[in-house]
Design a protein that fits this description.
This protein is an all-alpha fold. The protein is 92% helix and 0% strand. It has five helices and no strands. Helix 2 packs across helix 5 and helix 3 packs antiparallel against helix 4.
Length: 127
């Protein structure tokens, strides 16, 4: 059983290396680093999060917060349209699509293997 685990670990490491070598992943990591290094992006994000919390509290207390919502939407639009943020979010979505495709492929292959094993087990038990 340990050999099987070692094989799986090796294949997982190879898959991880392949994923990290993909251009979309490398670009995503570049933009993630740019954002992490620039405190302004973190400040903008924190400000938006605080505004979201204020909006939730106002709505919960049934206080009119239309002006706050408008300000939040304006700032959120400016944040999302920033070229670095925009590219980061687009690349993040592309990487997520890639990872979901890989996950789906693995699940399909596992299902085929399980179905094949079930079929073999069923055929064995009939004989």
């Amino acid at each position: 059983m340990k050999k099987l685990n070692k094989d799986i670990e090796e294949k997982a490491n190879l898959l991880n290396q392949w994923i990290l070598s993909q251009e979309v992943v490398q670009e995503y990591q570049k933009y993630a680093s740019l954002i992490k290094e620039n405190q302004q992006y973190a400040q903008w994000e924190n400000e938006l999060k605080k505004m979201q919390q204020e909006i939730v509290q106002c709505k919960h207390s049934q206080i009119d917060c239309e002006e706050l919502i408008n300000e939040y939407e304006r700032k959120k639009k400016a944040f999302d349209e920033n070229p670095v943020i925009y590219n980061y979010l687009a690349l993040k979505q592309d990487v997520n699509i890639l990872l979901h495709q890989i996950q789906n492929d693995i699940n399909q292959q596992l299902k085929k293997k399980v179905d094949e094993n079930d079929k073999n087990l069923y055929n064995f038990s009939i004989k």
